[in-house]
């Protein structure tokens, strides 16, 4: 049994958490152009308001929030229910990335990363799931990363947070497929955003946020669970997962020059 996609985004109510920049902003603008009704959430309300200006009247709701704040998340969803009655798609894009290696490990950075990248989407899913189960329809899409496939340098907190997202999405898919609720696990490679601008190394197969948004939305429409891109990079990392550790570590040391 394969999950259904979304034939058209036109008129669909889509809550984008992390909409103010990067992939989230690109998805928001594309969905607005496709006549979707979008709820724009992130911490930066000024950026959200700028994006909302591109929408038609009553096509966009701006609801700022911090994903690590339980009360703000709950209040945001209450506003959505009151205004639009619910959502058809939760698109969780928000996340943080701080380069971190063992010789500069900071547990406080790790805690913030896990809070935003793992507990944040879990909390959002927890909010929307009850109504989706009642109606037996809806879609949940969570942006993780290929960094969750296996251990990579400078991702001592980020990598584990994204590995956990993969596990979370896999179990969600297993549980929700019989209920008619679509689940989409999104694993981008390197995308040119404010987060990756911190990297001081060459990023292979780097793509734009607009290219990433196109891949994500096409994958959701097709009903794909495992949305990963760019394929020339993500498939290579998938291959590395099946190799014995001595070979895996040798390849990483040889090709990751950091």
TrEMBL record:
Q: Does the keyword Oxidoreductase apply?
A: yes
Keyword list (alphabetical) reads: Oxidoreductase
GO MF terms on file?
Answer: oxidoreductase activity
Q: Does the keyword Zinc-finger apply?
A: no
Q: Which residues form a coiled coil?
A: none
One Pfam family of this protein, by short name?
A: adh_short
Q: Name one GO cellular component term.
A: membrane
Q: Which PANTHER family match?
A: DEHYDROGENASE/REDUCTASE SDR FAMILY MEMBER 7B, DEHYDROGENASE_REDUCTASE SDR FAMILY MEMBER 7B
Give the protein family: Belongs to the short-chain dehydrogenases/reductases (SDR) family.
The protein in question is named Short-chain dehydrogenase
This protein's species is Polynucleobacter tropicus
Q: What is the lineage of its organism?
A: Bacteria, Pseudomonadati, Pseudomonadota, Betaproteobacteria, Burkholderiales
């Amino acid at each position: 049994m394969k999950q259904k996609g979304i034939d058209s985004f036109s008129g669909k109510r889509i809550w984008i958490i992390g909409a103010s920049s990067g992939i989230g902003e690109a998805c928001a603008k594309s969905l607005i152009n496709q006549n979707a009704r979008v709820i724009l959430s992130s911490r930066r309300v000024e950026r959200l308001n700028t994006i909302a200006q591109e929408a038609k009247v009553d096509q966009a709701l701006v609801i700022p929030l911090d994903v690590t704040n339980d009360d703000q998340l709950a209040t945001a969803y209450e506003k959505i229910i009151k205004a639009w009655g619910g959502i058809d798609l939760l698109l969780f894009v928000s996340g943080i990335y701080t380069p971190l290696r063992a010789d500069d490990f900071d547990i406080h950075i790790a805690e913030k990363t896990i809070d935003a990248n793992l507990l944040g989407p879990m909390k959002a899913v927890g909010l929307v799931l009850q109504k989706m189960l009642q109606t037996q329809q809806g879609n949940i899409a969570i942006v993780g990363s290929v960094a969750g496939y296996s251990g990579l340098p400078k991702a001592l907190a980020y990598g584990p947070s994204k590995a956990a997202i993969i596990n979370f999405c896999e179990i969600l898919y297993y549980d929700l497929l019989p209920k008619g609720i679509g689940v989409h696990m999104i694993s981008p490679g390197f995308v040119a955003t404010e987060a990756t601008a911190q990297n001081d190394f060459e990023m292979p197969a780097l793509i734009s946020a607009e290219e990433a948004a196109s891949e994500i939305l096409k994958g959701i429409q097709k009903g794909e669970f495992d949305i990963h891109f760019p394929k020339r990079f993500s498939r290579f990392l998938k291959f590395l997962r099946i190799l014995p550790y001595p070979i895996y570590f040798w390849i990483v040391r040889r090709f990751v020059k950091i």
